[in-house]
Amino acid sequence: MAPAKPLIIYIHGFNSSPASHKAQTFQNYVQAHDLPCELWIPELPVWPGEAARMLLQRALEAGICRPVHIIGSSLGGYYGTWLMESILDHCPDCPVKLVLINPAVRPYDLFEDYLGPQKNYYSDVEYELTQEHVDQLRHLEIETLSRPDNILLLVQTGDETLDYQQAVARYAECPARIDEGGSHAYDGFETTIPVILQFLSAHYVAAVSLSG
């Protein structure tokens, strides 16, 4: 039996969706180059606890022999950090890697200022952001990174939404690329995809070379 393809999980940010620019750009790249992976870009529930359970359940479905590669943008980076450590809690030998794109570090602190009516930018779904959402986010906090070498931090200093220095401090033990300027949306994401794939697996890079 052939080994299962690696699973790439792309986790979008707050009030975003699989239809976001970066998610769609990455999906199109994977499809165009026929990368040897299974790509999953879930639409996250608004409740952090539900989102976490959904992510972990899918990541563990294939067992410990399947590589899991996580890409987390903004709030998705916070979820991704929790997901990586949770996978390792269940399967210590699982080959899991994580790429963070302008990640939120302490989103539960930021959300205190956003309590009240919210609307998803893409689906137009309206909901109420409550203290319970904040508490659930806080519950997902990870204190210690067990495999910092398997985490790549990508930040831009021009991020107008999050303080990039918090991410640099939080992930100080991880390999990092810090670009001057840019924005929270991460300008030039298209040109950064090869960097992401190189970090995740040499197999992806080889597949891109063959497709070209």
From TrEMBL:
Please give the name of this protein.
Esterase YqiA
Give the species this sequence originates from.
Kistimonas scapharcae
The primary gene name is yqiA
